[in-house]
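Researcher: Quick one. three chains, 846 residues in total.
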Amino acid sequence: MPLLEVEKLEVCFSTKLGGVKAVNGVSFGIEEGETFGLIGESGSGKSVIGMSILRLLPKNTHMSGSILFQESDLLKMSDRELQDIRGKKISLIPQNPTASLNPLLKNGEQISEIFERQENGNVKPWKAAIDMMESLLIKNPELSAKSYPHQLSGGMKQRLVAGIALSLRPKLVVADEPTKGLDSVSRERTIDFFKHLNEGSERSMLLITHDLDLAYNICDRIAVLYAGEILEMGTAKEILDSPKHPYTRGLVHSLPKNGLVPLEGSSPSLLNLPEGCFFHERCSYQGFECVKVHPDLKVRGGRLARCLRL
Amino acid sequence: MKMINPSRWQLLWFGRICRIPYQKVLENKIVSICLILLGIVLLLAILAPMIAPYDPNAIDLKNSLHPPSTAYPLGTDHLGRDVLSRLLYGATTSFVIAISVVGLSLVLGLLLGGAAGYYGGWLDETISRLMDLFLSFPGIIFALAIVGALGSGVLNLIIALSLVNWASYARLMRGQVLSTKNNDYISSARVIGASDRRILCRHILPNSLAPVVVLATMDIGHVILAAAALSFLGLGIPPSIPEWGSMLNAGKEFMRTAPYLTIFPGIAITFTVILFSLLGDGFRDILDPNKEETGLAIA
Amino acid sequence: MSPPLIEVRGLQKSYNGSMVLNGVSFTIMEGETLGLFGISGSGKTTLGRCMVLLDRPEQGEILYQRRDLLKMNSKEFSRLRPSLQMIFQHPESSLNPRIKVFQSIAEPLQIHQNLSMSELHYEVAKLVEHVGLKAEHLERYPNQLSGGEIQRAILARIISLKPTFIVADEPTSMLDASVQAQILRLMMKLQERIKVAYLFISHDLDVLRAVSDRIAYIDNGSITSIEKNDEKKSWIS
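Model:
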């Protein structure tokens, strides 16, 4: 039984200009102990899916489908039930560590205050915080715990934020774009850090990213998103070593180290999605059917993909 | 909901100064209603000479302290002057004072605050210390002191209130300019060779104005209140010129026998101040560039 | 051997007491792309800004066509200004959010030339074609454009001045991978067309290897090495 099961999730924002279909019938599952990646560029819907799982979207969002976590539907839960889940069973490592840390609290306090709020008499909050920081390879944990966020480097701040997310031992961690805007050295370190985090852990992780290197290195399986749909899904190494869907292939080849071959055009407006395949207008393998028929996600050529030409 | 269609050239003219989202103005119901009501009040003030039933300064001791009746809809005061007419003319006075004070404060604030923020260095130091000085005095007391020194009268009242007020605008403007200055598009303008003047007028000013506009809008109400307070205390406007605050002042002696003398000007002041507060609130929401469509911002 | 377009000698600059640039020297030839690789805090952005005189170094020389920019008076320098341009890292703050894209692109022309409204429209239309934008983009405001579209608009704005040197400060690091490839291709094609030299600042070595003729490495305010790059991608027109 998968830990998390997303079934035909649809998310629609109503705006003055019409309905924006950010997520268009997405289904996937995450097993216990698995690291699953949602790969996509801006506007693909990956962040919206992450936010939906945490129920952090604004109240006027229209959602349908189901998100089953340990067999209960997150979309149907009340605010109080969600309070029990957030932070304790599902938590978030947010995108911008600097913005997520309280500049007025000492680093140790950022973690220990979480322990203080739990009614567990056995745990000494400060010590638990230092232990956590040590396990995250934060340098000089005792000293760092007594200093403030602005005294930490970017990489250390990220570990601290991860520590906050992991302090209550959640079963599922959502990591939102951990390498966004980082220089190459920091990116390497972050990749190593996440590898260390997930090694031998029973915890599942949902990684939201556009960084293919990161996904290759730490994800077990990935789903490639485009215009609110999954275009290809499978094991990370298989998909990134030999991508099948034209979009995935274009994406992989547009990386500088793979030839820097640009994908022409831009992703479609979510207000006005094209008929047929959402990607066909930019696709060099476009066929007659692609213009009219919207492909569904099924196994084609040995891979779960949404393309009529495979 | 009434549809208002501002004429095309009005839109073009104002729109060139800063990009005002007319769409949003018309959709925000509170702002639309406030603007309509404000328009009505201003119209009444402007047309006072034509619609006031009596001369506001005509003394008629025979008819003094008349309660509201058909002849005198809002009654008469202790000198037999018609309250309604005084209220209408008083609107003009109050608005003239408020708009002058806010206008003067705005000009001083934009110039000094803008210069301090943009040029920095000793200019900033000097102007900031000046701002600190003026801001350190408690408002009404400061105004009292100035009016006391200059003497009463409309012009002196305007000067006093402007001196009290300008520093808040300058401080706000300076802060806005400082943060706008750091944007890449300002650096970009310098690199393509734009002059300081062009950068200030075309790039910095329009992007710094929004909170200042909100402040000015809400301030009009506060100034009316402050002018009323000063007149109530007997300073500021000579009692012959109709003004809401001085009407309150004159009427306070007759609170038990003729309460309407204080009630009507009181309502007028309260109503106008609330109107401007709501308008300022509404403008703040409209002019906030961070208010994007929620969905598109996240995706 | 033709003389270098730009020669930098011994630049030094400090901020708040710490040395940001510590004796930086290098040359850039006409039409060349010099990559600059460094991590955050290495001084690369400050160096870029000094090259177009947005910041002034405390010591050193910046020779453009053999004349020292730092010793010129403002009149001389303002004549050279159009030739030395810069692209910034964050698309969302690179254009004035309150004016339409058309006006942003037209601004350099308005400052340096005296064109009529119709001439201006014509020139802007041509520029926009070169960068792959459409007429409808001109009527929009920056917040209605995607990151890639904004960078294209900025390139249009800059090339209207026919620069000989552009500092590109991480122009694609905030863009999606596929868009990055498009913009890099555009920049390289523009280089072919108007023979502009780039100082391409990036923390992504893969990007630099694809676009640079030579790559300079900067660390703690000093250039540690400059190497020739053989992996530059050729864009067949």
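Residues 139 and 229 of chain A are 41 Å apart (CA to CA).
Researcher: Thanks, that's what I needed.
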